[in-house]
Each structure stands twice: as structure tokens, then as C-alpha cells.
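FAQ: What does the model actually see?

It sees only this:
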Amino acid sequence: MRIVITTLLAMVMATCLNAQIKNKTSEEQVWLAFMNQTRLSSKWGFWAEAQLRTKEDFFSNFSTGIARVGLTYYVNDNTKITAGYAYVHSFPNNGHKNISVPEHRPWQQIQWHTKYGEKLRVMQYARLEERYRRKVLNDDELADGYHFNWRARYSFLLQGAIGNKPYAPGNFSWILNDEIMVNFGEQIVNNYFDQNRFFAGFAYHVNKSDQLHFGYMNQFIQQPAGNSYRTNHIARVAYFHNLDLRSK
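And it is asked to produce this:
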């Protein structure tokens, strides 16, 4: 339980820091996601994911599309290791107003789950990403080659059941989630801190394995120049689809 308290304090500190910084802009967005986790055997499975994000005033335009896949090795029922690839499509934006920018992103992750009694659950993961982002010549043209950097991510999710039938189909649970991301590599000069994402919301338990998450996310980003920041206020909806194809 000590790690739960420590992480909650870190969430509060990140939120307070966000509130104190003055040199920042903000946007309102919507993030939609579908995530599938399929277990093929006692040791192997795969991950598949699709995301679409808007920008500015929730629905005015698109900002990012993501497709992510991965091969998963199950150390046991509560711990798994995944390695895979993600394609990230950045729609026209400042700095490339008339063109989209592609990014190729290999990634590796370890994820683990912990239960505290019948109602409280914790999910954590540590992820490493290798980001190859296409260079931009101007608002109308891509340049040759890619910018490269590493990014490390740590996510802590706390989930608590609501009602007398914990996590039963048709019931709800509450969710608090914080994820911090750090850049490193030769091309990173000013923004070693990349961003922090804080989410508060609910999960509707569709059946014994699937969940629909919805709520508010605050995304606090340090810009590459290092002296400016952006805060995104996000309405997030994500469907988590889980399949177990092992022989019964």
C-alpha cells in the first residue's frame, strides 16, 4: 500500500506544478482508443491497438492517429513482457501546416498487476520507445531522414470497484492513472522531461473481460525548446477488449 500512497502524492505534485507554470498554451481534445489483448497460450499472446485524437475545441480537427501491435510473453498470470511496433501519423499542425508527418516507433514493455483485497487493483508498466520521426522541411514538404530519440514511460493505474459486486458485468469502477514520460538521446537538448498524463474517470464492465473507460485526462507537455509548455484538456474514451484462446 506504500507504493499506492507514494504514487498518489506524485500525481498531486505534478498537478500543482502544472498549475504554477505561466508560459504555456492549452487545447481541448478528444482521444478515442480501441485496445485488444489476446492470450494464445499459457506463455504467448499479442497486443493490438488503434487510437484517434482530435485537436482544438474537442472536435474541430484531427491531431494524431496511432496503430500499435506487439508480441507478448507471459511470465505468469500477473506479469507480461511485450515488444512491438507502432506507426504514428501526425496530421497537419504548426510547423507542417499542409502535410502530415509519419513516425515509426519500436517499443518494449513490462507490465504487472497487483490486487489488494476484492475491490482495489493496481496496474503498472514501464515502457521504452525508439522514436523515428520524419524530418520536416517546411509547411509543405517533408525532408529526407528522421529525427531519433529514446523515450521512457512509467504508468501507474489505480482502480477501485463500486458497489457490492466488484468488477461484475454491468457494474462500474473508478480509475486514477498517472503516466510520466522522459526523453533521452543525442538529439535531446532542452526537453528531457517530455510530458505527464493524469487521468481520472470510470470503467464500465461490459462483461467478465472487457471494459469501457471514460473520463478526463490532463496532458502536460514540455515543448522541444524547453521554455514553453502546453496543457491539453482531454475527454478520453477507450475500449479494452480481452480474449483468452487457451484450451479450457
